[in-house]
Amino acid sequence: ALLRAANALLQQRRYHAALAVIKGFRNGAVYGAKIRAPHALVMTFLFKSGSLREKLKSIAQATYAHSRNLAYFVFTYKGLLAAQSRLQGKRIPFHSFLAACIGGWLVFGDNNPINSQIIMYLLSRILFGLARLAVEKGCIPQPRQDPFPLLAALVWGTVLWLFEYHRETLQPSLQSSMTYLYEDSEVWHDLSDFLLYNKRTASK
């Protein structure tokens, strides 16, 4: 009976906006955990030192923070979107921008490693999206040839220049990756740390 009542409630159109906010919170939490857990697992075991317990704690904390923040953001965004639509009687494009700005300020405004990674991830996609939109709207002409090779060259040239000469400007996880690839490959003592391991163990 309780299950039937719950299912009946979910079918009520008048509660759709409120229920969408709740499901958005759920989906944000689940998606955040799915995205962060494998990433944190790989990065922690590749680059972080410490005991197994410390590593597992770090993975759990990063996963929880990402999951929580994404859940809070979706909840805030969809709630504000519904409120604006209800107040104005219809939904307009600016509602989405304003709701997301407020949500971004409240949820992702704290400058920490998790939020920083999410914002940088979004920024790269935004730049691609705005470039495509500018071409679609005729603001810039359609390129005669694919500009991606030039973009790839500039991105890699810039990031390696920053790594070599202004390393402190890069995010710590990127610094770790770059160090592993471009500096650790300069050091070895014998076959063990040339092919099998990145660095010699303390016993050696």
TrEMBL record:
One family name in Pfam for this protein: Tim17
Gene Ontology CC annotation, any one: peroxisomal membrane
InterPro entries tied to this protein: Pmp4 (IPR019531)
Protein name (database record): PXMP4 protein
